[in-house]
Specification:
This protein is of the alpha/beta class and about 290 residues long. It is about 35% helix and about 20% strand.
Length: about 290
C-alpha cells in the first residue's frame, strides 16, 4: 500500500462491497478473504443465545475476529462506542447490555455498511442505538463522553493507528475502558504480506506486533494495557487466508505458523487524565440527536 489514503479508499470499497453482498442475503467471512464455510478468523465467535434476537443481516455482516461485547464487562447505564461498527452486531449486543438508561454508538466510514446498520437497528426495535458516519482516526464525539470503547478487528485496518488511539483516549471519560478485539502479531511479518492490499483489508497485513500495540497505547496516555490471546492461527489457517492472494502461499503459511493471533486488547484512561486538545476535524459536534452532544 502506498499511502494512508490508498489504504482507506481500498478498505472503504472492500467493505462497501461486503455490505452489498449481505443486503443480497450472502454471508461474508472475516474481511472477505476466505470462504465463509472455511473462515478461520470469524467462525464460532457468537453463540446462538447472543444472536438469536438479532436481525439475520446483522449476523451475516459480522466480519470480526473476536467478541468484544462478551469480554468488555458492560454495565447498565454506560455509554459504549464501537469503532468500525459495520452492520451493527456489536452495537446491538452492547445496547442490550447497557439497557435503556445506556447508549450504544457505532462509527463507520462506509455508507453501505451504515445503511445496513440502520436497517438492522429498525428491525431490532432498540431505541438506545445511534450510528455515526466518520473515520476512527477522527471520532465525531465530544471529549470525555464515552465509558467503553469496543472494536472488532478494525483498528488493524487503519494506516494511522496512533491517531486512532489518541482519538479513543480523547472521547473516553477519565477511568473509561478501551476493550477491543483485534489481530496482533507475535514476530516479524513477511514483506510479501505487508505489501498486499487485499491482505491489509483482510485483517493481517496491517496488524501490529503485540509489544508495539501496547507501547502505542501507553504513548496515547492509557494505563494497564494488556493483550489476552483468544485464538492462535496456525499454518493451515494461514493457508486458507493466503491462498489465491499471494505467490507461494504454502511457503508463506509455514513462515507465519502461529504468528498471527486474535487478541482482546484492554487499557484504561487514567482517572486524572488530561485530554489533549482535539484536532480541528474532531472538534465538530457528533451530529446525533441525543444527549451525547
Amino acid at each position: 500500500m502506498n499511502s494512508e489514503t490508498d489504504v482507506k479508499d481500498f478498505v472503504r470499497r472492500h467493505y462497501g462491497d461486503a455490505a452489498t453482498r449481505v443486503a443480497q442475503g450472502e454471508a461474508n467471512p472475516c474481511c472477505g478473504i476466505a470462504s465463509a464455510a472455511a473462515d478461520p478468523i470469524s467462525s464460532g465467535l457468537y453463540d446462538t443465545v447472543q444472536t438469536g434476537e438479532l436481525p439475520d443481516t446483522a449476523v451475516l455482516a459480522s466480519l470480526g475476529c473476536g467478541n468484544p461485547t462478551a469480554l468488555a464487562e458492560l454495565h447498565p447505564g454506560e455509554t459504549v462506542l464501537d469503532l468500525g461498527s459495520g452492520g451493527g452486531i456489536d452495537v446491538l449486543l452492547s445496547a442490550r447490555r447497557v439497557g435503556p438508561t445506556g447508549m450504544a454508538f457505532g462509527l463507520d466510514m462506509t455508507r453501505e455498511m451504515l445503511a445496513l446498520a440502520e436497517q438492522n437497528k429498525r428491525k431490532s426495535g432498540l431505541r438506545n442505538v445511534f450510528f455515526l458516519r466518520g473515520e476512527i482516526e477522527n471520532i465525531p464525539l465530544p471529549d470525555d463522553t464515552v465509558d467503553v470503547i469496543i472494536s472488532n478487528c478494525v483498528i488493524n485496518l487503519s494506516a494511522d493507528k496512533d491517531r486512532v488511539l489518541r482519538a479513543a483516549f480523547r472521547v473516553l471519560k477519565p477511568g473509561g475502558r478501551f476493550a477491543v478485539s483485534d489481530i496482533v502479531v507475535r514476530g516479524e511479518v513477511p514483506a510479501a504480506i505487508r505489501a498486499d492490499r487485499k491482505l491489509w483489508a483482510g485483517c493481517v497485513a496491517g496488524a501490529l506486533r503485540d509489544s508495539d500495540y501496547l507501547a502505542r497505547l501507553r504513548a496515547a496516555g492509557f494505563e494497564h494495557a494488556a493483550i489476552e490471546v483468544t485464538r492462535v492461527y496456525g499454518a493451515e489457517d494461514a493457508l486458507t487466508l493466503l491462498s489465491g492472494q499471494v505467490a507461494d502461499a504454502e511457503g508463506l503459511a509455514r513462515q507465519v505458523d502461529g504468528l498471527f493471533v486474535s487478541g482482546f486488547v484492554r487499557a484504561t484512561k487514567p482517572l486524572a487524565a488530561q485530554t489533549a486538545p482535539a484536532e480541528p476535524e474532531a472538534a465538530a459536534g457528533c451530529g446525533c440527536k441525543s444527549r451525547c452532544c
